[in-house]
Amino acid sequence: MNHDHGWNFQGEVSLDKGFPFHSKLKDWIGEYTNLPEGLSISIFESRCEEANCPVEETRLSWNTDKGEDSLRIGRSKEKISKQDFYLAWKKKTSN
Ligand SMILES: [Zn+2]
Fold first, then answer.
1. Which residue has the higher pLDDT, 49 or 85?
2. pLDDT in tens, 51-68
3. DSSP SS3 for 34
């Protein structure tokens, strides 16, 4: 049960072009964050096929003038809901 999942690179998008796998994610980023429109975002996913291991996680990662920043959402990338995004962003920015 204790095994390493790692992150699989899924691609990189420019925020103004949006995400090919998700039609709304770009809008929610615009609504809830102040990330700049032309930002490049790398997408990583961690997904486990083993029974009894419900791991499905997406990591969005980008560079800022202070270094790398990222957001982790506990859902596979196509299935992220508005609430998933909102809660993940709120958790990230509230500490
Ligand atoms: Zn697993």
1. 85
2. 888 899 999 999 998 999
3. coil
Q: Quote the ligand 1 centre to 78 CA distance (angstroms).
A: 19
Q: Where are the domains of the chain?
A: 8-89
Question: What whole-number distance in Å separates Cα of residue 94 and Cα of residue 88?
Answer: 10
27 Cα to the center of ligand 1, angstroms:
31
Tens digit of each residue's pLDDT (9 = 90 or more) over 35-55 = 999 999 999 999 998 888 889
CA of 30 to the centre of ligand 1 (A): 33
Q: Which two tokens stand for residue 66?
A: 């202070």
Dihedral of CA atoms 75, 41, 38, 33 in degrees, nearest 10, equals 40
